[in-house]
Structures are given as C-alpha cells and as structure tokens.
C-alpha cells in the first residue's frame, strides 16, 4: 500500500499538465501513487498523461468515456486509490518541492490524524505569488491535534479539497462523495471538517494555486452558478442525518448566506438577465434552511445583508452595495489626496529645516531600504558610539524592525517630520543603499556609502548592457544619488575598481575592509554557542548555512536545491539553515517552494533572523550560489561550497565581473547529486577546500581583520588622516572558530 494516493482530474489543461505532473513526480518523498483521471478531455491532456504513465510505474491513467465534471472525476479516482492517505491536486496547480515529505512528516508527528490541512499560495500569470490571507490560522500554538470545536476559525479557510490530506479509512467511515456540478467542494469539505475527530495543521505552502487569466470557474458567466443551491441542499441534508453535528447548523447557515451573496455580487458569474431569479432563489434558500432561533441582528456587519436576502429586497441590496463601493472609492481618493497634502507639508517643513544650522554631532544611518539595524552601517554605528560617545546617532527604520535597534539609538520613522528634520540637519549620513530621492545634500553634510557586499554581479551603469536585470532602473536618478556620496567604503581592490567604474562620481574610496565582518574577529566561542542554542541547532550537529541569491530572471523565491532530500541524504548529524535573499520578506520562503522544506526536523528557516553575520558565526559551513555572503564567509575562514546549476543563465542575464566557477572559494557542484557527494564525502572541509578558500580570501578579504569600522569612524567622523589601525596580516588573523572542533565530514548515510 502506498503512503499517498494523489488524484489529479484532467480536463482541457494540456498547457499546464506537464508542470503539474512534474511537481508530483519530482517530490523527494516517493512513496505514492499518482492517479490521473482524464475526464474525456478534448485536447492532448490524455496523451500527455499516458506518456507519463509509460515512463513512471507510479502513474496510472483512467480515461472516462464521457465528460462528467470535476467532482465525479475525483470520485472515479478515489475508487481506484489504494493509499493510506488521499490527496487531490487540480491539474493546473503544482506541488511545492518537498511538499509530500513535509506532509508525511507532519502526519507522523501528529499520530495519523483524520485530516491534515496545509497551506497554499496563489500564483499569477506574471509570476507573482501571494500566500493565503488566512495562513495565520494554521500557525496554531495550542494542542497539535484537535477537532473543529477547538478551532472553529478553520471554517474561514477556503473550502476546497486540495489543501488537505485525508486518511482513507476516515473517508470510508464518513461515506461522503463529490456531487456533480459547480461548487462541488462545499458538500465534501464541510462534512469532513465537522466529522473529523482529529485534525492537524501544517503551517507552510505545499500547493501553488494557479490563477488563470481566462477560463476557469471564476471567469465563467453561466447559469451553472445556480448549482450552488443544490450543493448547499446536500450539505444541510448531511447535517439532518447527523444529530451529533447539529451545533454547526447556524454557523453553516451564515457561511451559506455569505457564499450566495458573494456569487451575486461578483460581476462575472451570473448572466445579467438571471440575477433577479438568482436573488429570489437566495430568499427561498434562506426560508427553507433558516435554523430555528436564527437572528440576523446578531450578525453585526452582515446582519443588514442577511435581512435583505430574507426580504428578497434585491434592488435595495444592490443599491446599498453600490453605495458601499462608492464610499470605498471616495475614502480611497481622500486618503490619496490626504497623502499628497501631507507629503507637501512635510517637504515644506524639510525645506524650512534646511535653513537651520547643521548639527555637528548628529549622524543618521539606514540599511536595506529601512529594513532595520543591519550590515555595514550597523557596524559603523556601533563603533561610532563606542569610540566617539559625544556623537548622537539616529536610525531610519519602520516599526516592524524597531526591535533590531540597540539601546540608545533613536528610531526615525521613514517620511515622518522627525525623519525630515534629521535629514536636513545631520552632519553625517551613512547607508548601504541610497536615501530618499527628495533628500538634497547640503554643504557641510558628509555622505558615506558602505555598500552591502563585494560585487560579483554587475552593478550601476554596468547594467546598461543588461536591461533585463536593470528592471527599468532610472540611471539618471541613480547617478544623481551617487553624486551625493563623499566616501565609498571598499573591501578590496576588486571592489574599489568596480565601484569607481559602476558609479562614476567624485567620491573618495576608503579601502578599509567590510565593517560588517568585524564581528567575526570579536565574537567569543561562548557567544557563538549561545547563537546556536538560540537557533535550535543541536550541540553535536554540523550546521550548514544555505544562502542563495536573488535571480533577476525569476519571480519569487524558487530554491534550486531540494532541501528535505539533501537533509535526508546527509543524515541525522547535519542541520540545514535556510537563509533567503533580503529581497524576499521574512516568511516568503513559506509562501513558496522553499518552505516546504522547513517542516523537516533538521531544516531551520532563518530568513527572518536580523543578522546574517550571526548566522555565519553559528554555522560550520556555507552553501551558496552567487551570493556576496561568500566573500564575508571567506574572511571567517570556514568551508564554502558553491552550487552553480544555472551559472550560464545567471551570467548571461545579470553579467558578472569574474568567473567564480573558475576561481571559487571552495568546491563547486553543478547538480544536487554533486553537492550531496561533496558534503557526504568530506571534501567540503578537506585540504583542497582550504586551499581554494585561502586564495579567494587573499584576493577579496585583504583588509577584513576586525578593524574596518574603526578605520571608517576615525577617518570620517574624527577626521584622523593618520594613525589608523594597521591591517593585520592574513597569517596573523584568527577569526572566531565554531565552539567545537570542526568534523572532517558530516555524519552522513553512505551514498548509493
């Protein structure tokens, strides 16, 4: 018996079916059967499914003689299923990598529940992805297994079949089946949720729910939407036969009214001529199914809507709906006008503040477009407070990142009056990107650009040759911003040459090292051990940090490595730390393929951790592709492995300053199999790895000795032209080591 039966009904989806089936067959968890039900599809979908079945014995195809619709096709697949758990996947959707592994692991940890509910995201034609808006309902902190009575908020989730795994014997016990017609998920999902004695949750995206521009039920105008009434009749008939579930009648009645009126309000569902009839049917449904004692007045915001349905007052319902939409548009326009007025007032305030004297002891800092206390500016700010306590510092960031600020640092809300006052009067401004385009540098102000890494990919005006990567960058505005720089902090001669060519301006290059790496030479083994404990890394484990970079030719985070598979192949002695690029907000890994891996007990998603430097210190080795983190990590003198599966595409799309595969900081893997071999055999931390790292470190980390920030502070803020800290020679540097001897190899299972 396979662990899972994955049922995929197919009709008119030949353009999407390959991606769907590949996403199932490419899973790291392989104990499943894939049942494709060809619902008499008029295109090539049936032939595509047959080709997959010929190549993979896990695939079987059921060709139906007539087109019976989605629900009945699912029933046909269910009749053939032999798995312990059943899953449904629509044929234009896909599984995230590692999804089945995550689902299986969660089922095991929660004692084989009747139902497991997992998350999804909506993926659009332009590549954008948006996680389920009610995903917080899946982040349960109470009992991990429960019934619907203990978590009724789950009824707010989308009522579909494909975001759940069903234990087969539970389905047999309840005895429900999909009906024919539209909205077939309604009399299937509600009964199973109510009848389940044990429900468990998986707080991560496992399904990418494709939002097709045309076709599909949401874009179909038809009288078939009247079939929704039949589906709710079936639901309440089920309830009539289960007195033990009577307590849910009023809740489901409200859900029905909400659903019926939503269909009525959507402009693309019902033919215009049928709308009066549909509303009369809503009224009849209300009267027929209204629970005893139901009081619409108790429903607060929905009460008026329910009353109008009960009265059959369609014109009043439509008029109030139009009025509500008008109020929303008016409020939106008022907010926009108010925003413009506020911006104008604040700009006038900024201009007035520019007429006041500069504050010689005020320095303003920011990093990563106001995303908190981080990177080189943070290292400079901390050192400034340490050796120049007379200086006052302020940091530009939002409330979301306020917790990252150390004590004693004033927070400036971007765009606030305090922000513009500080921008007008501070004598020093330090950032690793650029300040607001309305900021105009005053005579006497000093701007320091620290950058945020050593450049491998093309930057600045060098992107003129790579318009796809430039994404419509306004080069004229960029150069106006660059003209504000007085100093450009550089980590190496390579960086200096790039910055001066990519950002042609009159700044002074400070070849002092990368301030953010100073902590690598100052952290104690005890501090590193505390970091590991805080991240949940077992003290006996080898921790490998996986930090891929952003790709200009991809939308959203799409990991090139199957992390659950890698974790299984490396064995119980290895923990993988997943760090996504800062372009993706914390949790975005959960909204895409990446997080499907984080349900694995030895994969920790550290994308939301505020300090990349701390993650470097907490790890024993780095796995990356083309991220600038490799240059920092080389200065830490710990093993690095590159995974460069798409090197040719990345180089052609973005442009690079040198071939990192020819001069790497450690072993290079082109495939996941090669990566596993490098990590499992010990070559990742062997002599050849150390030799490559030493050459890379000498070239790109000549000044990263723990004193880079001090050099910047003394030169820029204290105006000390001489007597800066001398550069410590490479042989004399001793960056912080892991808090235990580095193992020669992970405790991996033998490779097949």
From TrEMBL:
Residues 727-752 are annotated as: Disordered. Its main location: membrane. GO terms for molecular function: CDP-glycerol glycerophosphotransferase activity. Signal peptide: none annotated. Residues 5-174 form the Glycosyltransferase 2-like domain. It is a peripheral membrane protein. Keywords: Cell membrane, Membrane, Teichoic acid biosynthesis, Transferase. Residues 736-752 have a biased composition (Pro residues). One of its GO terms (biological process) is teichoic acid biosynthetic process. One of its GO terms (cellular component) is plasma membrane. It comes from the Bacteria. Pfam families: Glycos_transf_2, Glyphos_transf. Transmembrane segments: none annotated. It is found in: Cell membrane. InterPro entries: Glycerophosphate_synth (IPR007554), Glyco_trans_2-like (IPR001173), Nucleotide-diphossugar_trans (IPR029044), TagF_C (IPR043148), TagF_N (IPR043149), Teichoic_Acid_Biosynth (IPR051612). Belongs to the CDP-glycerol glycerophosphotransferase family. This is CDP-glycosylpolyol phosphate:glycosylpolyol glycosylpolyolphosphotransferase. It comes from Actinacidiphila cocklensis.
